Amino acid sequence: xxxxxxxxxxxxxxxxxxxxxxxxxxxxxxxxxxxxxxxxxxxxxxxxxxxxxxxxxxxxxxxxxxxxxxxxxxxxxxxxxxxxxxxxxxxxxxxxxxxxxxxxxxxxxxxxxxxxxxxxxxxxxxxxxxxxxxxxxxxxxxxxxxxxxxxxxxxxxxxxxxxxxxxxxxxxxxxxxxxxxxxxxxxxxxxxxxxxxxxxxxxxxxxxxxxxxxxxxxxxxxxxxxxxxxxxxxxxxxxxxxxxxxxxxxxxxxxxxxxxxxxxxxxxxxxxxxxxxxxxxxxxxxxxxxxxxxxxxxxxxxxxxxxxxxxxxxxxxxxxxxxxxxxxxxxxxxxxxxxxxxxxxxxxxxxxxxxxxxxxxxxxxxxxxxxxxxxxxxxxxxxxxxxxx
Length: 389
Hints:
alpha/beta; two-stranded antiparallel sheet
């Protein structure tokens, strides 16, 4: 297969790196991927961003920009039946794994069309527009991340949404120093670098901050060689703080549409009492800045961007009763316990469980005919019921 056009100065080096270490290193398996990830379910994303699922989204066009070994593409197919999906990556080695993964899982049978191609996200001007673009852990590996974001912006439909995952400065403090140490040791970015990187953590004293941080936080994630290499040996990466993140978003003329891990940015996760009251009185942007300062373990940003400004729907009880609902597709583990969108056990009342079950059986019924407003709103607020239309 022909190698992609090197539109970004880092492309040939990064492509060769991922040929050597196809990432992510998740094992292949027969059948659908395990569990759910609501961030890869277009209907769930629409409801989270808009407060409801707008009409006319029955067959979305989805781009997985920098699909790697196809973990995200696999979920995008299984969680968006009937969609048209394009997965692209610059690494031939990673893409070969992605193609095998989706073939073994039956991903193509879930969607109207699935294409997996060795291409740069910078060279897709002939492919848009897309209703949903997923680009997780990709743009921060470009030599010019701003060019990557502008390229994706140009591929968005007017109503389109973009899901990004980018590195955060503070939570990668130890990672950055390990990277620099291995670079000073001239470990390289191949098999020798992998060997020396693992040896480094075995050699450093147990009390060493870098070794302790790796052992306590990243050792399990880095069990696969590809994952270790991606974290500590990568030849090109950029990270951000909140201020630079929003400056970056502005370079493409896009609009911030919410974090896809909003619970991380809620001050209530860290504070209570008077301190929490003071925090909650701040504008949202300052609440996020406060969380950033209080939690230096945040290692990434994951969020949605939109081509146009979005004002989430706020419904009165009367409007809620007249609405139609969809049971959240990303629930797992029934009958007990039900696991939520972040795989957390859910404590539901008998009325809430009954409504979820009835929605499965009577999807066309107005919500007001199925439950009281308080029950509906509790499920909508927790995104267990998605409002439609």
